[in-house]
Amino acid sequence: MHISIADLADGAADAPPLDGDGAVRAPLAVVDLAPADAAVVERAARRARDCDRVLVGVGSGDRALVRALDVTLTGAADTGRECVAAGDPAERAAALRDAAERNPQAALVLRDVLRTTGGMDVPAALDVESYAYSALLGGAEFARWLASRGPRLLPSDVPDPVLLARDGTCCRSR
Questions:
Q1: Does residue 156 fall inside a structural domain?
Q2: Would you say which domain of life the source belongs to (predicted)?
Q3: N or C: which end of the chain has fewer CB within 10 A?
């Protein structure tokens, strides 16, 4: 889903991301941050804060709207905390959208982590990220990725691993 600021303000991203069967559809919307009327930008920022999708801005725009989005990709070097500099922001946004379409549940978990941890101190935010990661490890998306990756071989220059055996209440090296 690729929308303008006016589309966002008019509710283009408001439809629930779950279909009638509970499957996630269109988990991520790309928002083109071309200049818009101040009232439209204000409505868009309000809608963005309540949106159930991951919202990725492309370009530079009003700071209140940029802060309401989950992330903004920009070509500018001085981007601010809410933005990520990218050589080709539109290309990066398309790659994020494709990844979200392939892994919609992970995308929505990412949305929740981003929105939940923004105001937290680092240790608490890392706990939230850890809970989210742990929840995803048991899912079909992770299993599919793991199977597609194939077995990972240890590099040949790694020394023998340490082996432990449990014998009652203590451990001994072998």
A1: no
A2: Bacteria
A3: C
Q: Are the C-beta atoms of 133 and 109 separated by less than 8 Å?
A: no
What does the pLDDT read at residue 87?
Answer: 87
Beta-ladder partners of 166? 171
User: Is 155 contained in some domain?
Assistant: no
Distance, CA of 55 to CA of 72 (rounded, Å): 8
pLDDT digits (tens, 9 = 90+) for 53-81: 899 999 887 788 888 898 888 887 766 77
Question: Does 99 fall in a domain?
Answer: yes
Residue 10 inside a domain? The answer is yes
Burial of 53 (0-12, 13-18, 19+ CB in 10 A): buried
Domains of the chain: total: 1
Q: What is the dihedral of CA 40, 41, 47, 52, to 10 degrees?
A: 130
Angle at 172 between CA 170 and CA 174, to 5 degrees: 160
What is the spatial distance between Cα 152 and Cα 101, in angstroms, rounded to a whole number?
26
Tell me the average pLDDT of the chain: 85
Domain with 128, as residue range(s), is 2-149
Bridge partners for 171 per DSSP: 166
For 118, phi then psi, to 5°, come to: -55, -40
